From TrEMBL:
The lineage of its organism: Bacteria, Pseudomonadati, Pseudomonadota, Alphaproteobacteria, Sphingomonadales. This is Aspartyl/glutamyl-tRNA(Asn/Gln) amidotransferase subunit B. Allows the formation of correctly charged Asn-tRNA(Asn) or Gln-tRNA(Gln) through the transamidation of misacylated Asp-tRNA(Asn) or Glu-tRNA(Gln) in organisms which lack either or both of asparaginyl-tRNA or glutaminyl-tRNA synthetases. The reaction takes place in the presence of glutamine and ATP through an activated phospho-Asp-tRNA(Asn) or phospho-Glu-tRNA(Gln). It comes from Novosphingobium aureum. The keyword Membrane does not apply. It is an enzyme of class 6 (ligase).
């Protein structure tokens, strides 16, 4: 249970949060038309006749959109409803040419499911927590009004009309902004793994309606407000923080909370009233007469299940048990599907180049990716996807370390040059003269010189001053200009010093 509370003038208040996430389905067309859905297209260039609500146009469901919704439901261990039905949600607005939205109210395609958010002590999430998901239904998006194109008129862009959305409705199981942020991040991760939504919140392909209410701890639920279309995890957390505190201030001033729809202003981090909240009966829902019910067959469901990839929780567990990674490293590497794919390619290439099994080089690869490459890319302001260092080149670099060809410090130099030039690590090592000396004969000759030049310290060492061992290592490495293999240097020194 979250320990998050708002300290009001009259005592503590508890926050209750539910999210309705609208996720744009990754598909080849809109939900009921063949129009394209590319982001950033010129206004009104991706509009079929049915999107524009021309007379006589009949909707036909896009099978891929249905498939992706089913796969998403399976990924959250939800009940898949073999029977579902489309309804008309009636309201008039300038960016909705039909005068109604085709959605699913009474019989959604996906029923109850859940996902687990991980403990995060720093964020105030003391333990893993299961967040219930009430349903997923599919519906068509509306268009977009543009108010900044003309001084006295608003323009309408219908490109988004009919775009397929999954509305993923959580239970009111979250009790802090941190829990809501963790839930939204985890849901986005799952959608990206499944491939049912790209999760690009900045492009509007995933956005959240945030339901917030406050109450005294343990009391009945309070009146909720809904803040619409919040398009980042950080903004969702800010909206909850502001709205919860606003409600506490209202209640403590003796006023009532009005059930309403609100908007979030990211420039001020505050919410403002938009309109009174409608209930389902206000939309006059009824079954869409142009669409037959969806009946899902067992073969279709089996194909959907078999197409699912390894999901983040399962991948994280495998990284810990089979590869021996720490829980932290496993979490970092599986939190984003692109990172996980990059790591697995790096792991395969490192094993191949070094002649070792993946499990033998997994810790080295994970540490290098998280500590070295992520750190370097962060300084450059570059993403992993745009990195000049590919998994193949990264694997070659790690293999050079594993084989003892270069030292760890030399590897850092090689990485810097790889990021600047994109050159292969072997070529850089040869060009810069960074190859590590592992020839026992050459190393032994240098050690003999060091010991001969420091006979007094050798005597002190043999008399028990063992801390001098580091001195001999340092002198040997200095004599070899840092190119001696530390492991070989240590072994020969130990044998000679007794």
């Amino acid at each position: 249970m979250s320990n998050y509370r708002i300290q009001g003038a009259t005592g503590e208040w508890e926050v209750v949060i539910g999210l309705e996430v609208h996720a744009q389905v990754t598909s080849n067309a809109k939900l009921f038309s063949g129009a394209a859905t590319a982001f950033g297209a010129e206004p009104n260039t991706q509009v079929a006749l049915i999107d524009a609500a021309m007379p006589g146009m009949l909707p036909v469901p896009n099978k891929e959109c249905i498939r992706q919704a089913v796969r998403t439901g399976m990924a959250i261990n939800a009940e898949i409803n073999k029977y579902s039905r489309f309804d008309r949600k009636n309201y008039f607005y300038a960016d909705l040419p039909q005068g109604y939205q085709i959605s699913q109210l009474y019989h959604p395609i996906v029923g109850e499911g859940s996902l687990t958010i991980e403990a995060d002590e720093k964020a105030g999430i003391p333990e893993d927590k299961v967040i219930g998901i009430e349903r997923i239904h599919v519906e068509q998006d509306a268009g977009k009004l543009m108010h900044d194109q003309h001084p006295t008129m608003s323009y309408v862009d219908l490109n988004r009309v009919g775009v397929a959305l999954m509305e993923i409705v959580s239970r009111p199981d979250m009790t802090s902004p941190a829990e809501a942020g963790a839930y939204l991040s985890k849901l986005r991760t799952i959608l990206r793994y499944v491939g049912s939504c790209d999760g690009n919140m900045d492009q509007g392909s995933m956005r959240a309606d945030v339901n917030v209410s406050v109450r005294r701890p343990g009391e009945e639920l309070g009146t909720r407000t809904e803040t619409k279309n919040v398009n980042s995890v950080r903004f969702v957390m800010q909206a909850i923080e502001h709205e919860a505190n606003r409600q506490v201030d209202e209640l403590e001033a003796g006023r009532k909370i009005v059930q309403e729809t609100r908007l979030f202003d990211p420039t001020t981090g505050s919410t403002r009233s938009m309109r009174s909240k409608e209930d389902a009966h206000d939309y006059r829902y009824f079954p869409d007469p142009d669409l037959l019910p969806l009946i899902l067959e067992d073969d279709f469901l089996e194909d959907c299940r078999n197409s699912l990839p390894e999901l983040p929780d399962a991948k994280k567990a495998r990284y810990e048990t089979e590869l021996g990674l720490s829980a932290y490293n496993a979490q970092v590497l599986t939190a984003d599907v692109d990172t996980a794919r990059w790591f697995e390619r790096l792991l395969a290439e490192t094993a191949k180049a070094s002649g070792k099994q993946p499990a033998e080089v997994a810790k080295q690869a994970a540490n290098w990716l998280i500590s070295e490459l992520f750190g370097a890319l962060n300084k450059l302001g570059t993403s992993l996807e745009a990195s000049p260092v590919t998994p193949e080149k990264g694997g070659d670099l790690l293999a050079l370390i594993a084989k003892g060809t270069i030292s760890g410090s030399a590897a850092k130099q090689v990485l810097e040059i790889m990021l600047e030039t994109g050159d292969a690590p072997e070529a850089i090592v040869e060009r810069e003269g960074l190859k590590q000396e592992s020839d026992t004969g050459a190393i032994e000759a240098e050690i003999d010189k060091v010991l001969a030049a420091n006979e007094d310290k050798v005597a002190q060492y043999k008399d028990g001053k063992v801390a001098l061992f580091g001195f001999f290592v340092g002198q040997t490495m200095k004599a070899m200009k840092g190119k001696g293999n530390p492991q070989v240097v240590n072994e020969i020194l130990k044998s000679k010093l007794g």
